[in-house]
Amino acid sequence: MRITGIFLILALLLSGASLNDARKANEAYNNGNYAEAEQLYKKAIEANPENAKLYFNLGNALVNQGKTDEALRVFEEFKTMTDDPEQEALADYNIGNIYTQNKEWDKAINSFKNALRYREADADAKHNYELAKRKKEEQQKQQQNQQNQQNNQDQQDQQQQNQQNQNNQNQNQQQNQQQQQNQQQNQNQSQQNQSGDQQQQQNQQQRPSQISKEQAEKILQALEQKEKDLLKEFKKKKTESSDSNNEKDW
Length: 250
Fold this sequence. Notes:
Blueprint: H1 16-30, H2 34-47, H3 52-63, H4 68-81, H5 85-101, H6 105-118, H7 123-206, H8 213-249
Helix pairs in contact: 1-2, 2-3, 3-4, 4-5, 5-6, 5-7, 6-7
């Protein structure tokens, strides 16, 4: 559904130079020359700053140029200057249209509601008021859907993160177990190596030392020489004993 907007300029009752500037501003506005109309309305305001309708028309010229922030300030200023409730309602209606264009639905609803207080039969205000309410509901549903999707995505991300953490924990446990097994194997191997070294040392200690052939021959010669010396000594002692016995017989 389209947004219904009027943005109509108000008739002006001015005199002198301000009337001429205001008339030229209205002509520029009606011809779609909104920038020129803006400058002429501001010039007319300088000459006649108490005329509220000049502010209203200036606000319309600003809106049509997309200068919505400045237009809002001008319309609010116009509302403080006018004593006509219906003109104030027109300003609220234009303000509601600006908020509708900006998709600021709460502010648009309030502005159209204010306009309808003094212009209950304004079909355009009713149309835009209902439209703003509907757009707000759609926005809320969309935001809720987005929030639900985000919550679902966050939940999935959390589940994936939990699963990844569990996998990492299991992997760490397996690595620790493997490390412990390797340490135990290394310890067993070290004990086996140590036991083998001890056994080898014992075998070396028990094993008779091996000598060379020359050393064996020398040892054998020494034994033979010792045996000869013993035999010679034995014969000598026997001879001496025999001589001693012969002397006694005499």
